[in-house]
Amino acid sequence: MGIIDVFHITKDYGGQRGIFDLSFHVEEGEVFGFLGPNGAGKTTTIRHLMGFVRADMGECFIKGKNCWDEASLIQKKLGYLPGELSLLEHMEAWDFLEFVARMRGQRSMRRARALAERFELDVSQKIRRMSKGTKQKVGLVCAFMHNPDVLILDEPTSGLDPLMQSRFVELLLEEKDMGKTIFLSSHMLDEIEKTADRIGILREGRLAAVEDAAKLRQNYQKTYVLTFDGPAAAEAFLRRGYSCERLGPLQLSARVRGPVAEFLQDAGSGGAVSIDVKTESLEELFMHYYGRDGQ
Amino acid sequence: MICYPLLGQDIRSGWKLWAGFAAILTVYVALIVGMYDPDITRTMEELLASLPPQMLAAFGFAMEDTTLTGFIASYLFGFLLLVLPLIYEVAAAVRLVASMVEKGSMVYLVGTPNTRGKIIRTQGFFLAGSQGALFLYVGVLGAACAGYFFPGQLDIPAYASLCGGAFCLHLMLGGFSFLASCAFGDTKRALLWGGGVPLAFYLLHMLANMGGRLDILRYATVFSLFDTEALLAGEGLGYAGMGILAAAGAAEYLAGMILFRKRDLSI
């Protein structure tokens, strides 16, 4: 038994929506990334883990406790960040945090204060007047402040600026070092690749694959847009044996898998004046990953 | 077992709504009790006689008993105390459950180490408790006004049973709002059912009051179980109605809680 065990859960909302025969396990101390496009069923899966909805079929457990029947026992040591945050808007942030702490029977607010400082959150503000990113910080403090063993975070960095995103990654890595089990959902690989040990890919409510993050990264091909100093150089580069596509007389896009040192060298010596990275959509990643290797 | 931190939060965020209704009721109760005058009652009857009697009856302003207690029974318990607290109950019931589920802030109640049962019991306790507090306040206020304007004229036991009967009626009406709020995950349907059904009962009650062939509608509305005449006369039928209303109210609260515990929450 792992920390999070999902056994064949199905929730059919009709019209291909829902999750179907989903099974996976997250081990203690692991960071599990749950990747899928919008509408793939990530939030539905999380609602099952939180005990908010009951599966049509199948069961899921956290630390051996049934997510539906024993939700309140699980919640004691669980931190949750909803994907669509809805705090108690009429309260000040600190009052809200204290309220949730009281609901949890949590005594000390030391960690809450430290987390608020870390995310540069002004806790005296009314939540209603906060920007989306600031509300996200309140949600994060709320998820971490009682020092839970298990964290379930639904698109945790949405709305955060790059600096706060990196502070969040730092925090997550610290928690991981402390042996916490972390379930992270996102529709962007970038958001979870820095921290996840394993990544599950959800597609149309079905788990398409569970991979080691390292392996996925290795096979993850990136597309670079090269701009050359002349049409001839671009033409010459086309014949270098990379998987290229012509975008214009001076521009090519090239798909590269794995280590890029050699490619960069070739591009530089071949007369490229600028290189842009084109981030791939999840669907592209998926197609590249499975389209090329076959199954 | 209820969740005290949540109850505290309910009180902090709900007292304004409650106080608003208490304030409106204060004005009306004082106004109406102060209006009573045994001599002018006759003049008023003449005045009212110029209006269509069906219309007056519909609003419960058909007065046969000209004592202070009878006056209060028809003018206070015939309309104001039927309708105003109902608006409070619908608004509060939707705010406590359905609106939190719709917005998603229910996550921060059920996503804590409290069982759903405990959470929803707390919300129900707050709603029923605040209803009780409203009627207790109005009851004491009405008695105080009567004592101030017309010392010794109020039939206290009869008046107390009127207050109790009205509270039982509202326990039933508010219970239905609570049930609707627990059953639906959106504010719109919770309002439509939780407010619409009690309102429909009230409209039937108004029609039945107009008398004649419409009198048969008396059997189609729960408002008939709050029988002011029987309560004033101290008849058993009045108390039986009260008992039925209270039991139905309790059953609705219970059903709402069971539904909420078992349903999927899309939060």
Structure commentary:
The complex is a heterodimer of chains A (295) and B (267). Chain A has 295 residues and is an alpha/beta fold. Chain A is built from eleven helices and 14 strands. In chain A, the strands form three sheets. In chain A, strands 6-7-8-3-9-10 form a six-stranded mixed beta sheet, sandwiched between helices. In chain A, helix 4 packs antiparallel against helix 5 (132-144). With 267 residues, chain B is mainly α. Chain B has helices at 4-35, 38-49, 53-58, 68-103, 107-110, 116-149, 156-183, 187-209, 228-233, 236-262. In chain B, helix 4 (68-103) packs parallel to helix 7 (156-183). Chain B is elongated. Chains A and B meet through helix 2 and helix 3 of A and helix 1 and helix 5 of B.
CATH-scheme architecture of the largest domain in chain A? 3-Layer(aba) Sandwich
E-strand count of chain A: 14
Q: What structural category arises from helix and sheet content of chain B?
A: mainly alpha
The count of helical stretches of chain A stands at: 11
- What spatial order of strands do you see in the largest sheet of chain A? 6-7-8-3-9-10
Shape of chain B: elongated
Strand content of the residues of chain B, in percent? Answer: under 5%
Largest sheet of chain B: none
Q: What is the arithmetic mean of pLDDT of chain B? A: 91
Number of domains of chain A: 2
Would you tell me which CATH topology of the largest domain in chain A applies? Rossmann fold
Structural class by SSE content of chain A: alpha/beta
The number of distinct structural domains of chain B comes to 1
Mean pLDDT of chain A: 89
Q: Specify the helix fraction band of chain A.
A: 25-40%
Number of strands of chain B: 0
End-to-end gap of chain A: 28 Å
